Amino acid sequence: MWTLLVPYLFWNILCLVFYYMAFRLPILSAWFQGADYNFNYILSALWGKMDEQSNMTYPIAYQFWFIRDLMVCVVISPLLFRFVTKTRYYGVILLGICWYLGYYLPYIGLRGFSTIAIFFFTFGAWFSIHCKNVLDIFRKLKYWPFLYIPVAILDLCTKREIYNLYIHHAGILLGIIVCFTGTAYLLEKGKIHIIPFLSSASFFVFAVHDPWLLMQIRKILFKLIRPESDMVLTLLYFGVVVLVIAIALGTYYLLRRYLPRFTAFITGGR
Fold first, then answer.
1. Which of 53, 127, 146, 235 is placed for a possible disulfide with 132 were both Cys, Cβ 3.0 to 4.6 Å?
2. What is the pLDDT of residues 87-122, one digit of tens each?
């Protein structure tokens, strides 16, 4: 739990300070919205503020919603364990249907108590409790990965449609199958190899890519280059991602080499 909570607080507090300082620097203030940094705002920024519709909310370092929801699942894991063992796979399927159809569990004042987190947490728990290998199951769906590309294209083309949610969720499920089976196949064939440095750097890249790198580099490059053609826009879009990953990996390498304890602290020992 502490390996999740410590980096969660560190990166969100750092992001809060970053926005606070950036808004007060004349050169950066035009790019950031101001806020009243009172006690309620700080608490909301660190955990996520529920809106009027009780929709999904995010901490100020928004990608950490995943870590926040995971911590909630860890806290209630004894209840989830009993749920999985008592209902067998029927309970997990029911949660999956609720997530797929867009039904959300009531927040009950607790941000992070979400259907998506509980479904995938219990989904993984079922395999662990029953000593099942997820790859053995996914390999039986050997033709399903071929559906991913057409579903992904359909998802992109129907973003403004009400029914897009179901296509998008289908794409997520198919994408998971593709990633698991594809990676396992390439590893077994010796086409790819595990690189320990990239494995250890993955959390740091996840933590630092936004808002410190991706958002700012994209703004700067788009302002400098001013793309006018689709080709330049596409190259710039993917080029920014490559540049952000390269900068993040380089920063992680330097931090791990010269400040190993600090690096372990901000990444939860990963």
1. 127
2. 988 999 999 999 999 876 655 445 677 888 999 999
**Cα 141–chain centre separation:** 25
What's the CA gap between 117 and 22, in Å, rounded?
32
Q: What is the pTM of this model?
A: 0.83
Alpha-carbon span 85 to 92, nearest angstrom: 10
Q: State the residue for tokens 């509980």.
A: 118
Q: Report which secondary-structure segment, H or E, holds 70.
A: helix 65-75
Q: CA torsion angle for 39, 41, 47, 53 (degrees, to 10)?
A: 130
Give the C-alpha separation, 7 to 207, whole Å. 9
Contact assessment for residue 61 and residue 11, using Cβ atoms and an 8 Å cutoff: yes
For residue 167 the two structure tokens come to 């296509």
For helices 230-258 and 214-225, what crossing angle results, to 10°?
Answer: 140
Positive or negative, the CA dihedral 84, 122, 264, 1 is: negative
Contact criterion met (CB below 8 Å) for 51 and 68: no
How far, in Å, CA of 100 to CA of 66, rounded? 18
* Nearest to 60, CA basis, from 80, 33, 79, 83: 33
Give the tokens for residue 98. Answer: 């609720």
